[in-house]
Amino acid sequence: MAEVDRVIAHRLDSGVPLVGEVARYIISAGGKRLRPVLLLLSCGALGYQETQRHNLAAVVEFIHTATLLHDDVVDESTLRRGRPTANENFGNPASVLVGDFLYSRAFQMMVDAGSMRVMQTLADATNVIAEGEVLQLMNMHDASLDEEGYLRVIRSKTAKLFEASSRLGAILAGSPAPIEAACAEYGQALGTAFQVIDDVLDYDGNAAEMGKNLGDDLREGKATLPLILAMQRGTPKQSQTVREAIETGSVDKLHDIVSIVRETGALDATRDAAAAEAQRAIEAAMQLPDNTYRQAMVLLASQLLNRRN
């Protein structure tokens, strides 16, 4: 990871000072670097130790960072990882344009791999992520969204880059199709579990730990799984309270909604859904060769359920 950070710092260089300033601001915020970690772990599990793994790990972090820059503009977010968002600090135009720079720099870097499979995987992933963003935008303030629709969004918007990151390790290692498929499934399942837990924390965390404002999803009119299950399980009055909050984007009754989510068992049911995805990830990882890297992949999936931020 230290080598990946070195590559990131080197490739952020630009002749336009504001580009580097904005990009460094968000990348230096101390994110989890989970996507690069997945790529490095899958490479290690499959015996690939060439330097291209560092380059592509930086690529997936650049793509992820670009989506964060654009996300925060679309969502009008003011806080990320415990400090003001880039759009709050530098304005929306700079955030959007630097996000575009990071996308284009990522594509410059992936060419270095000299592999059409690598380029196809990342190009497809980037396209699916963009579709997921639009799908989420269409679903804003839609209280009729069901669990299937919710999962479709997060598997496009969040889990797809996890999936691509894990798959890339198998592609670099020249692994057979079944192993590549296992890596991809591991990433998709882990990414889905990660997002589901993230949605739990919007109603079961605190702003200091999470580095974002509690209730942000509700404020943006997002029907996340805790809310979907609360409407299914609650009394007509409870369901109506949640429905109105999603449709209006009001957080005036946030305290009541947190209570409804907990009282109906929706929070526990959401954690159970995340646990099922984490177990799916573990089962996929068990198809890889038995070594310390695979053990780390299994541990990562099991520890994800204890995430607090």
Any descriptors?
single chain; 309 residues; 17 helices; 2 strands; 74% helix
How would you describe what is shown here?
It is a single chain. The protein is mainly α. It has a single domain, classed as Farnesyl Diphosphate Synthase, CATH 1.10.600. It has 17 helices and two strands. It has helices spanning 2-11, 17-27, 34-45, 52-75, 86-90, 92-111, 116-139, 147-157, 159-173, 177-201, 207-210, 216-219, 225-233, 236-248, 254-263, 266-285, 292-303, and strands at 79-80, 83-84. A two-stranded antiparallel ribbon has the order 1-2. A hairpin with a 2-residue loop joins strand 1 and strand 2 (83-84). The longest helix is centred in the middle third of the chain and has 25 residues, at 177-201. The radius of gyration is 19 Å and the shape is globular. The relative contact order is 0.12. It comes from Limnohabitans planktonicus II-D5. It catalyses: 5 isopentenyl diphosphate + (2E,6E)-farnesyl diphosphate = all-trans-octaprenyl diphosphate + 5 diphosphate. This is Octaprenyl diphosphate synthase. Its cofactor is Mg(2+). InterPro entries: Isoprenoid_synthase_dom_sf, Polyprenyl_synt, Polyprenyl_synt_CS.
Give me a quick take on this structure.
By secondary structure, the protein is mainly α.
Q: Overall pLDDT, averaged?
A: 92
Please name the CATH topology: Farnesyl Diphosphate Synthase
Major sheet summary line:
2 strands, antiparallel
Question: How do the helices and strands follow one another from N- to C-terminus?
Answer: HHHHEEHHHHHHHHHHHHH
Strand composition percent: under 5%
CATH superfamily: Farnesyl Diphosphate Synthase
Principal-axis shape equals: globular
Strand elements, count: 2
CATH class: Mainly Alpha
Which class of secondary structure composition applies to the elements? mainly alpha
Per CATH, which architecture? Orthogonal Bundle
Low-confidence stretches: none
Q: Which radius of gyration do the C-alpha atoms yield?
A: 19 Å
Number of helices: 17
Number of domains: 1
Which bin fits the share of residues in helices? over 70%
Distance between the termini: 21 Å
Largest sheet: spatial strand order: 1-2
